[in-house]
Design brief:
Blueprint (H helix, E strand, L loop, with lengths): L1 E3 L5 E4 L22 H4 L8 E9 L6 E9 L6 E4 L11 E4 L14
Length: 110
């Protein structure tokens, strides 16, 4: 896993995991969890995470590889009019923003 800039250039490689197993003749799943604290210092507002998986088949020497680019999305603002909008008059508006991060935000302005 590595952080990549919006241009596609790599920024920083994040911790890697290696798994060795004998696969049955069906699907198998490997789960990898990356905590926000691990990637947060290495990504900017327009960056992404690139996951690269490589598998090798010992019996045949065949190598398989796959990449997945994960774009980090900025949460949306929700705007709701709380009254009728009339020309020349104020109208109350509700703005809702939900912080999806596991830490408080600071220096936020609307």
């Amino acid at each position: 896993l590595c952080a990549v800039r919006y241009t596609g250039c790599g920024r920083r490689r994040l911790p890697a995991e290696q798994h060795r197993r004998t696969l049955p003749p069906s699907r198998d799943t490997v789960t990898m969890t990356v905590a926000y604290a691990e990637y947060q210092p290495h990504v900017g507002p327009q960056d992404a995470l690139k996951l690269t998986v490589v598998a090798a088949v010992q019996e045949t020497g065949q190598v398989l590889a796959k990449e997945l680019l994960v774009r980090l999305h900025t949460p949306e603002l929700t705007l709701t009019l709380l009254g009728p909008a009339v020309v020349g008059q104020e109208v109350p508006v509700q703005v809702v923003f939900q912080n999806p991060l596991p830490e408080p935000l600071s220096r936020v302005s609307l």
